[in-house]
Amino acid sequence: MPRVIDGTRRKNRRKKILGRAKGYWGTRSKLFKTAKGQVMKSLMYAYRDRHNRKREFRRLWITRISAACRAEGMTYSRFINGLLRADIAINRKALSNLAIEDPGAFKALVEKSRQAVGA
Questions:
Q1: How far apart are CA 108 and CA 118, in angstroms?
Q2: How many other C-beta atoms are found inside a 10 Å radius of the C-beta of residue 73?
Q3: In this structure, how many other beta carbons lie within 10 angstroms of the beta carbon of residue 11?
Q4: Which end of the chain is more exposed for a tag (fewer CB within 10 A), N or C?
Q5: pTM for the full predicted model
Q6: What's the pLDDT at 119?
């Protein structure tokens, strides 16, 4: 009976894990067992941080809008409330870009918001 050598499926599975572990420090990139654990952990971090990235960007946009509003003498919450009352539907990402790239247009939005709030 011929001797059986490890099949290609096992080799391919290990190769895939070690390929994903490239760039890790020490045995985490060299040994299959430790690499497998680190790759699993890394995938968990990647999944978590893909969702956290959305949260972080929203925080950044709100901070930028708030700073631009304060330069115009208005708070962020009053500005957003005024936009809602004026039926101006524009998302925070666009507002943030507007505040940076076109301060004149942002100033016009602040005025519309101010009129809607009545302040």
A1: 15
A2: 9
A3: 11
A4: N
A5: 0.77
A6: 60
